[in-house]
Write a structure and sequence with these properties.
Blueprint (H helix, E strand, L loop, with lengths): L1 H15 L6 H8 L3 H7 L3 H26 L3 H15 L7 H8 L1 H28 L9 H14 L13 H16 L2 H13 L1
Length: 199
């Protein structure tokens, strides 16, 4: 029952935003009373935190599964991008913006966890890219992984990239192209251009 509450809440939160969805909305969608939900989560804050961690764990596990394959590092970045876009309904609402505005403690906790996971994944990607002569050998792996995380986080900020003006799929692709062109060898650029043709 607890996981069912989290799954349904996540569906609503990602579609309409963390602030917009009420406990009444969740209870109605589940076909149960709010009292039943409160047996598991004393407050909406408790439920929001559980949902945020559930989303984080699901996305992290999916990214790990992609990284384990050990595919071409440039293709891997596109696979991760597509997985995240498919998993999160970021086009329908601004869940991260609402999370940051109304639940800042959870937002920064999530960001810290994301950095820890992504930093390791991106550093491994960069190392393999250098080994395969797709990325330039002189790049600073730690610096680039931090810049990558900063950029991928920044393009989700609707104050900087307003909804309506920017499509998240296009933004993510443009950012990947920007990132890869900055670090790639000629072979890497060729591989990037193949990936862009398939987008």
């Amino acid at each position: 029952m607890e996981q069912k509450i989290v799954n349904t809440s996540n569906e609503l939160f990602l579609t309409y935003g963390f602030k917009s969805v009420t406990m009444d909305d969740i209870a109605e969608k589940l076909g149960m009373s709010k009292k039943t939900i409160y047996n598991y989560y004393k407050t909406k804050n408790d439920l929001v935190r559980a949902c945020v961690m559930d989303i984080f764990n699901a996305v992290s596990e999916g990214i790990d599964q992609i990284c384990i394959i050990g595919m071409n590092p440039i293709k891997e970045l596109f696979e991760v991008k597509n997985f995240i876009l498919n998993h999160l309904k970021s086009e329908k609402s601004s869940p991260l913006f609402q999370l940051k505005k109304y639940y800042p403690k959870f937002f920064y906790e999530l960001q810290k966890k994301q950095f820890e996971v992504m930093s390791e994944c991106v550093q491994e990607n960069l190392t393999r890219g250098i080994e395969r002569k797709l990325y330039r050998k002189e790049i600073d792996i730690d610096f680039i992984s931090r810049i990558y995380f900063s950029g991928i986080t920044m393009i989700k900020d609707i104050e900087i990239f307003p909804k309506g003006k920017n499509n998240m799929q296009e933004l993510q692709t443009q950012y990947l192209e920007y990132h890869i062109r900055a670090i790639a060898t000629k072979n890497g650029i060729s591989e990037l251009e193949k990936m862009l043709k398939n987008e």
